[in-house]
Amino acid sequence: MESYCLFCKSGQEGLVITLLTHGGYAAFSPLAVRNKPDAGGLKRTKARLLPGYVFFDADEEPDWETIRRCSGVLKILRYEDGSCALHGDDLEFVKWLKRYEGMIDVSQVVKIGTKIAFVGGPLVGMEAKVLQVNKSRKLVQIALGDDDAMFRNIWCTIEYIEGNADLEKLHQASERTDA
Questions:
Q1: Under DSSP, is residue 23 helix (H, G, I), strand (E, B) or coil?
Q2: Closest CA to 62 of 54, 11, 97
Q3: 2-178 maps to CATH 2.30.110.10
Q4: What is the pLDDT of residue 163?
Q5: 128-159 residue pLDDT tens
Q6: Helix (H), strand (E) at residue 61
Q7: How far is 7 from 135, CA to CA, in rounded Å?
Q8: Residue 69 confidence (pLDDT)
Q9: Comparing C-alpha atoms, which of 6, 107, 101 is closest to residue 53?
Q10: Which of 36-40, 80-84, 129-133 has the largest mean confidence?
Q11: What does the pLDDT average to over 80-92?
Q12: 3-state secondary structure at position 70
C-alpha cells in the first residue's frame, strides 16, 4: 500500500475526501486541537493541521484522471523525480498522523530552564526540532524531516504542567543518552 497527498482548495478537503472514499481509497485531512482567543481566555477548537492537504492510501496506482476532475483538487503532489507515492520523512510523517487517527491532540510539556520537554501527548518521542514557542497561544512549531520533505514544519498545541525533580532527572538522562 502506498500513501499519496493532494493539495486542494482550502475548505474543500471534505469534498475531496468524499470523492476518494467513494473511489475506494482511505483518505483523511489531519486535524489538530488549537487554542483560539476567547473573551474568557483561550478556547480549544479543532482545525486543519495542514489546510488544503488530503492524504490517501491506495493498493495500486490511483485513478489520477478521476481525481484530477474533482473541482476541489488543485494539485497532485509529486517529487522532483515525478513520483507521487510519499517516501522518506514525508511517509514517516503520514504514519505518525495515522497513529493518532489524523487528530493531533495537545502535548504536555515541562519547562526546564529555557527549554521545554515533551512529557505527554503525540509529540513525545517524535524526532523533531522545536523552532518556535508561542507562549500566549500555547503553540509550538516543530521542524519535520530534512530539506527534501514536503512537510517541513507544523504548529501543535502544548499545555504546560508543573515539573518535578523526577521529570527533570528523566529528561536530563534522556539528553545524555541522545548525545
A1: coil
A2: 54
A3: no
A4: 62
A5: 788 998 888 899 999 887 777 787 889 999 99
A6: none
A7: 30
A8: 94
A9: 6
A10: 80-84
A11: 93
A12: coil
Q: What would the DSSP string read from start to end of 117-164?
A: EEEESTTTT---EEEEEETTTTEEEEE-S-TT-S--EEEEEEEE----
How does DSSP classify residue 59? S
Residue 75 corresponds to which cell in the numbers above? 494539485
Q: CA-to-CA distance for 94 and 92, rounded, in angstroms?
A: 5
Overall residue count recorded for the chain in this entry:
179
Say which residues have a Cβ less than 8 Å from residue 106's Cβ, sequence separation at least 6.
33, 44, 121, 157, 158, 159
What is the sign, positive or negative, of the torsion defined by CA atoms of 11, 12, 15, 21? Answer: negative
| Contact in structure between 47 and 34 (CB atoms under 8 Å) | yes
Supply 48's cell numbers.
Answer: 486543519
Asked if residue 79 lies in contact with residue 2, where contact means CB atoms within 8 angstroms, the answer is no
Q: What is the pLDDT of residues 46-69, one digit of tens each?
A: 999 999 999 999 999 999 999 999
d(CA 141, CA 130): 6
For residue 40 the three cell numbers come to 474568557
CB neighbour list of residue 89: distance below 8 Å, 6 or more residues apart: 144, 145, 146, 148, 149, 151
